[in-house]
């Protein structure tokens, strides 16, 4: 029996650990979560684990390896623990296609979706040029995925892989990223992506990861959409953020 892997994360960043937890759940690898305050992300002991001061990071006692960067962690878990090839393939072609799509997620979807969400909802000042740029990039990337998934259920081969699951967390946040109107599905214009997303959302591993996320969000006083409890719309959220940014007396 493998010893549990420790997954380090801060309580303010539950989104970033979800792909790692989902993969661990898919592979039924034992793990424990080490949650700590965001204020301590640049302090020991975490800075000794990840000098870059970003989560997630893992410590695997079974191989004596400490690893950070979610993409690297996912590839490691696949190589070491996916002995039955549940989420990957052995063949050279498929293996490299999976790597390609994981890099596409890390260099494309993650950064651009994140910047769009920041400038739309979190930046203290409205910067129209930045909002326009990153909103267009989000739609461009969704268009690319929609084309890739034409006539396909999964990005590579005939099963869900780690490359598919890597895209799931940010697609779940599209309503906040794009400030979608209540009740509107931001994936409605991208039918292939929408169906792909739904297939992954129905997986038990994802539902377990979301249960863990909900618990962590509740502990830090946040709703499922990431807004503080008591905040019901974007205007209230902007007012909340503006007040939080005011200098303390």
From TrEMBL:
Recorded catalytic activity of this chain's protein: RX + glutathione = an S-substituted glutathione + a halide anion + H(+)
Leader sequence segment: 1-23
Parts of the chain that traverse the membrane: none
A GO term, aspect molecular function: glutathione transferase activity
Matching InterPro entries: Glutathione-S-Trfase_C-like, Glutathione-S-Trfase_C_sf, Glutathione_S-Trfase, Glutathione_S-Trfase_N, GST_C, Thioredoxin-like_sf
Domain (GST C-terminal): residue spans on this chain: 91-224
Catalytic class of the enzyme: transferase
Enzyme Commission no: 2.5.1.18
Keyword terms, alphabetized: Signal, Transferase
Domain GST N-terminal: 1-85
Alphabetized Gene3D superfamilies for the sequence: 1.20.1050.10, Glutaredoxin
CDD domains, A to Z: GST_C_Ure2p (cd10293), GST_N_Ure2p_like (cd03048)
Entry protein name: glutathione transferase
Organism of derivation: Aspergillus sclerotiicarbonarius (strain CBS 121057 / IBT 28362)
Upper taxonomic lineage: Eukaryota, Fungi, Dikarya, Ascomycota, Pezizomycotina
């Amino acid at each position: 029996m493998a010893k549990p892997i420790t997954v380090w994360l801060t309580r303010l960043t539950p989104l970033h650990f979800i792909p790692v937890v989902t993969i661990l759940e898919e592979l039924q690898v034992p793990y424990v979560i080490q949650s700590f305050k965001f204020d301590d992300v640049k302090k020991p002991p975490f800075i000794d684990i990840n000098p870059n001061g970003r989560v997630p990071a893992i410590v695997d006692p079974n191989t004596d390896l400490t690893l950070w960067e979610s993409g690297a962690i996912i590839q490691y878990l696949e190589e070491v623990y996916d002995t039955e090839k549940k989420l990957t393939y052995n063949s050279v072609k498929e293996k490299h296609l999976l790597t390609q799509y994981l890099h596409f997620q890390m260099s494309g979807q993650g950064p651009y979706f994140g910047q769009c969400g920041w400038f739309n909802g979190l930046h203290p000042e409205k910067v129209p040029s930045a909002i326009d740029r990153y909103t267009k990039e989000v739609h461009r990337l969704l268009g690319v995925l929609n084309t890739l998934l034409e006539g396909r259920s999964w990005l590579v081969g005939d099963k869900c892989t780690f490359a598919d699951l890597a895209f799931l967390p940010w697609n779940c946040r599209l309503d906040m990223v794009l400030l979608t109107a209540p009740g509107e599905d931001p994936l409605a214009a991208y039918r292939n992506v929408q169906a792909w997303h739904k297939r992954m959302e129905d997986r038990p591993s994802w539902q377990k990861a979301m249960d863990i996320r909900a618990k962590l969000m509740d502990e830090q006083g946040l709703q499922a959409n990431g807004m503080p409890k008591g905040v019901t719309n974007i205007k209230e959220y902007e007012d909340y953020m503006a007040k939080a940014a005011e200098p303390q007396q």
